[in-house]
Automatic annotation (TrEMBL):
Keyword Transmembrane in annotation: yes
Record key words, sorted: Cell membrane, Disulfide bond, Glycoprotein, Immunoglobulin domain, Membrane, Receptor, Signal, Transmembrane, Transmembrane helix
Subcellular location: Cell membrane
The organism's place on the tree of life at top rank: Eukaryota
Leader sequence residues: 1-19
Protein name per the record: Ig-like domain-containing protein
Name of a matching Pfam family: C2-set_3
Domain Ig-like: 37-134
Organism in which the protein naturally occurs: Triplophysa tibetana
Gene Ontology biological-process entries: cell surface receptor signaling pathway; cellular response to lipopolysaccharide; immune response; negative regulation of T cell proliferation; positive regulation of T cell proliferation; T cell costimulation
Protein's membrane topology: Single-pass type I membrane protein
Cellular component aspect of the GO annotation: external side of plasma membrane
Amino acid sequence: MNRNLLASCLSLLLFEAYGFVELEITVPSGTIIGSYGQVLILPCTFQVGGSWDLRSTVITWQRGLDVVHSFYYSRDQLDRQNPLYAKRTSLFNREMARGNASLRLDGVTPKDAGVYTCSISTNFGSRKKSFGVNIAAFYSEPRLQFSVLNDGVNLLVTSEGGHPSPTLQWLIENSEDITNQTQTHLMQDTHTGLYSVSSWINLTEVTNSSLTFILSNNLLGQNIRREIQLSSDKREKQTEPAQRCQGCFSLIPFILLMFVLIIMVLVFAVRRNLTKQNSFNKKQHMDQTQALNGTV
Ligand SMILES: *[C@@H]1O[C@H](CO)[C@@H](O)[C@H](O)[C@H]1NC(C)=O
Ligand SMILES: *[C@@H]1O[C@H](CO)[C@@H](O)[C@H](O)[C@H]1NC(C)=O
Ligand SMILES: *[C@@H]1O[C@H](CO)[C@@H](O)[C@H](O)[C@H]1NC(C)=O
Ligand SMILES: *[C@@H]1O[C@H](CO)[C@@H](O)[C@H](O)[C@H]1NC(C)=O
């Protein structure tokens, strides 16, 4: 402890003696989050004094070993810039005299995520500091799709355009976790780096219940929670024949009445026919007798 203190005092003394104090620079203390497709400013400030000289200032932004942007001889020097960053970076030159070495990065995508280092060298000294950058995108409103299988129903939920990969959860009746009865497929677009997710469950038996689908993008605090109400009319189907029969029962008196009426009409018609035939027969008989009488 004492020796450490002594060492730091000594180094401080040495710096003072050479008139050279380590440059103070400031970068974010944690990871910063950029929004997909938007401008992201990577903050970095350095200490400037009265005798600060632009011409002896070198600002270099790197991600790992890749050069993101560099500035020296009072201007941008981009011949060693990584092509991924071409025409997407700029420094705030007017702010530089105030110690602002922040980098503006346009149209960020998940490919820009990583650890960035801001290195500054001026006539006061030099220093570099690093911080993390993550790119996030919101997942779209999930789409729900039902398809009927031979032995049940397939329930499919899809959502696109998010980053990073989501966490998914399925609940039944808002409590029981049934995530491991479901299947999930995650796809990353090679061009944009964004994810599409689809998750499905096969229900062999649909009962009156509620299913809850939860999709979270933890980086953004996005939490999509959708409840799906399932209802089955199976019981109604079972009671349907009975209801039909009840209908039949209420029809029975009517049908009986109609039946009786038809019978009555038929009987009446038959009887009328019979009496007609009888009278005809009688008439014929009489004619015959008359004829017989005539011939006599
Ligand atoms: C640097 O300047 C830019 C442009 O005015 C500003 O948006 C940014 O906040 C400044 N950064 C710091 C750390 O002051
Ligand atoms: C499903 O998850 C539960 C815990 O949530 C676990 O106890 C059970 O073994 C899992 N079932 C299968 C089939 O993986
Ligand atoms: C659901 O059913 C389809 C078609 O029968 C099958 O391909 C799929 O693997 C099933 N999924 C689950 C989670 O059981
Ligand atoms: C489900 O609920 C509906 C009305 O909400 C009801 O008519 C039906 O009988 C119920 N089905 C079962 C299987 O409980």
